[in-house]
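Saturday, quiet lab. Running sequence design on the structure tokens for the scaffold JK sent over.
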């Protein structure tokens, strides 16, 4: 997957790759099935449109995440195995009291440093203020290569 990447960085890249691939597959389905696209368009343009109440087959596009944004909380779940205390508007929140403030901050700093390093390598774009990242074209090229 890439020389010199930590397991945390590999996990972060894989999360972003999987999310981007998920949306890419849906775009291909729309391209290959105009009726499916027409169905989605009728749902999306409905005056009562609510992304939380779309049929399961459209959940991916309802999130409107075509670039494959990944929240750092997704890294906490996947890499550290933490369970969110609650969710609000597609954001997940953790209890520092349950995890332990010291452990939470250590993980948070490790994730932020990993994001910075992946960004410096040109593999991801990061928005720290919003807490998300996504693959750059270089990151997608790296992830598209077969693992050795």
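Result came back. Writing it out in full:
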């Amino acid at each position: 997957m890439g020389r010199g990447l930590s397991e945390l960085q590999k996990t972060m890249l894989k999360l972003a790759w999987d999310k981007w691939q998920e949306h890419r597959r849906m775009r291909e389905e729309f391209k290959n099935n105009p009726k499916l696209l027409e169905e989605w368009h009728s749902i999306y343009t409905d005056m009562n449109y609510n992304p939380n109440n779309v049929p399961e087959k459209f959940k991916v596009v309802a999130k409107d995440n075509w670039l494959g944004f990944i929240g750092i909380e997704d890294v906490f779940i996947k890499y550290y195995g933490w369970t969110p205390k609650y969710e609000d508007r597609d954001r997940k929140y953790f209890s520092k009291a349950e995890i332990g403030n010291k452990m939470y901050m250590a993980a948070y700093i490790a994730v932020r440093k990993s994001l910075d390093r992946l960004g410096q390598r040109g593999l991801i774009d990061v928005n720290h203020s919003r807490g998300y990242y996504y693959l750059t074209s270089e990151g997608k090229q790296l992830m598209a290569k077969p693992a050795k």
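Notes for JK: The radius of gyration is 17 Å. The CA atoms of residues 20 and 68 lie 4 Å apart. Ask whether to fix the surface positions before the next round.
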